[in-house]
Design a protein that fits this description.
Blueprint (H helix, E strand, L loop, with lengths): L13 H26 L6 H17 L5 H8 L3 H13 L1 H15 L1 H24 L16 H5 L23 H16 L10 H12 L5 H17 L9 H5 L14 H6 L16 H4 L17 H15 L2
Helix pairs in contact: 1-6, 4-9, 5-6, 5-8, 6-8, 6-10, 8-9, 8-10
């Protein structure tokens, strides 16, 4: 006997949905405000930021990473190309992430909670690294010999003098949240959709990587560290189950299996007919009842007229003997 299935509750009303939306907006806005305020705490550590920049540059050369200048030279082939790269850096980062979260909130609520938590953990880890390891971007490092494409070709999101820039902390290059958020966007869309073309979402972090390096706003290692932090966040936050099997959704529990049919000599001894042989009418008597065993020292009884049990047992005995 199965227990009755508990009926699903009514869907939340418009007022509850509105309260949930407002709560999410306030939560996301609050987390972003805390991050922006925290970044400004390392603004005055200019000397340390330049020393760290020199260490990162030397570490990249020791690791034989490609020079950031190789990507920038590709962008500098035309003013339109480098201007497009600067626009992508300035205008795509925040709107793309916001649209990603809004789409998940509307269409994939479970994936929205997962993505929002992963982005919160990633951003918190990035803030901790910004505060402990201030880093000047390669466009400020003389040894890199790179062009500040934002200032020269525009548009730029940073002030000309880092010390007087009240809108952003220019010494928070590591890790690159431009790349980290773009990579999470791609992975989140791949996890939340089922299109055969969903792997194309990876073009967004790839293009972002070329842009942040080519505009001299980030080192290669900035993107590598962002990837490591994102991997840790993904391990910490469990991914939601996207789909369930039909049996699990119905709550189906398989019943007991039918006993295996006994055939051969064992069937003849136990008196059970094979499952494949259907016998109409009453069940046949055991073979031991059809053929009495004579007792030593006693005369065998005279054969009499066949009884119904004997008549039914004879074909079964013949059938069992034929199968040997």
């Amino acid at each position: 006997m199965t227990s009755p299935t508990k009926p699903a509750g009514p869907p939340p009303g418009p007022r509850a949905a509105r309260r949930r939306l407002i709560r999410e907006l306030l939560l996301v806005a609050g987390l972003f405000a805390v991050y922006k305020a925290g970044r400004t705490l390392s603004t005055g550590r200019t000397d340390e930021a330049y020393r760290n920049a020199g260490r990162i540059w030397d570490a990249e050369r020791a690791l034989h990473l490609p020079g950031e200048g190789a990507v920038q030279r590709l962008l500098l082939h035309g003013d339109a190309l480098v201007h497009t790269a600067n626009t992508y850096y300035a205008a795509v980062h925040f709107p793309a992430t916001a649209l990603f979260l809004v789409w998940l909130y509307v269409r994939r609520p479970a994936h929205y909670l997962w993505a929002r938590r992963v982005l919160a953990v990633l951003t918190g880890a990035a803030l901790a690294l910004h505060l402990t390891f201030p880093l000047a971007p390669p466009r400020m490092l003389g040894a890199a010999h790179l062009v500040d494409t934002g200032q020269v070709y525009g548009p730029s999101v940073y002030g000309a003098a880092p010390a007087t820039d009240t809108m952003a902390n220019q010494f928070a290059a590591m890790p690159s949240l431009h790349f980290g958020w773009a990579l999470m966007l791609a992975l989140g869309m791949i996890a939340a959709t089922r299109s055969r073309w969903r792997a194309l979402w990876l073009l967004h972090p790839l293009l972002t990587l070329l842009v942040v390096v080519g505009t001299a706003n980030h080192y290669w290692l900035d993107a590598i560290v962002a990837t490591v932090l994102l991997g840790g966040a993904l391990l910490l936050i469990p991914r939601p189950v996207a789909a369930r099997t039909a049996a699990a959704v119905r709550g189906h529990v398989p019943g007991p299996k039918a006993p295996a049919a006994v055939s051969g000599p064992a069937a003849a001894v136990s008196g059970a007919a094979p499952a494949s042989a259907a016998v109409s009418g009453p069940a046949p008597a055991p073979a031991s009842a059809a053929v009495p065993v004579p007792v030593s020292g006693a005369a065998a009884p005279a054969p009499g007229p066949p009884t119904p049990a004997t008549a039914l047992a004879a074909p079964a005995a013949v059938t069992a003997g034929a199968g040997r």
